[in-house]
Amino acid sequence: FDNEEPRHVLFSAHGVPASYIAAGDPYQEQIQECVDAIGKTLPDDVTVHLSYQSRVGPIEWLRPYTDDKLVELGEEMGVKNLVVVPISFVSEHIETLEEMDMEYKEVAEEAGITNWKRCPALNTSPAFLSDMADLIAESLSGPTQSVSEACVANNVNLDVSGDATGSTSSGGSTGRRPEVDLNGIMGMKDVERINGQFAMVGVVGTVLWEALSGKGLLHMFGL
Predict the structure, then answer these.
(1) Which residues, including other chains, have CB under 8 Å from residue 194's CB and lie 6 or more apart?
(2) C-alpha distances in angstroms, 18 versus 8, 28, 198?
(3) Which spans in the chain are helix H?
(4) What is the mean pLDDT of residues 188-207?
(5) In CATH, 7-118 is 3.40.50.1400
(6) Radius of gyration, alpha carbons of the chain
(7) pTM above threshold 0.85
(8) Tens digit of each residue's pLDDT (9 = 90 or more) over 162-191
(9) What's residue 195's pLDDT?
């Protein structure tokens, strides 16, 4: 930035329903650890923030929401210089090119953030692809895991009769893998159904609009 205003970096991660985290999903913790690790490499005068985007449906998702965070940064904190980083997004797509570059940029400018920059996604970065290849090779050479074992390894709160090795609370061995009640975790099945219904309503509404008006959906917005 070519001014002396304080510099801020906002990491915007894809959100998930809050019930997933309450059920033991380590996603939020992993995102925070990643942001903290990257933040340590930045200059001391750079302030780091984290928010979550792309929520769907009427349920509670991880907060703070990115659009709310942008308003807070601009209107309440007076931030002028902001770099937005799409963390947990590995390639450019609608949530970076449209949601970030268009929608969130407009929100930021209206909130008074005059210098907006957005880091590109990793895409085909040689370092990223090399690291991914190494992780895949490492995984292929290691022991396989069942879904139950992978969930236990990631500290997901499961309805199980024992741990990943089949041991019981009394220390004995059941000799079998634990059962996982994935649909029963904090109403996740209901959450997915509600989100799916909202998405279907949107699709049906779009089809009806185009069929009745003879025009594309973007025409309704003057595009």
Answers:
(1) 57, 58, 59
(2) 26, 10, 18
(3) 18-22, 27-39, 66-71, 94-97, 105-110, 126-141, 147-153, 188-213, 217-220
(4) 68
(5) yes
(6) 22
(7) no
(8) 343 333 334 443 444 444 445 544 455 566
(9) 66
- The H-or-E segment that residue 175 falls in is none
Q: Which residue has the tokens 């309450």?
A: 22
CA distance 7 to 44: 10
Number of C-beta neighbours around residue 138 at 10 A: 9
CA distance 100 to 222: 20
User: Alpha helix (H) ranges present in 15-155?
Assistant: 18-22, 27-39, 66-71, 94-97, 105-110, 126-141, 147-153
- Can you read off the two tokens belonging to residue 203? 């699709």
Q: In the predicted model, what is the mean pLDDT of residues 182-210?
A: 65
Reference 53, options 7, 23, 24, 11; nearest CA is 11
The full length of the chain comes to 223
Query: Residue 178: is the preceding peptide bond cis (ω within 30°)?
Result: no
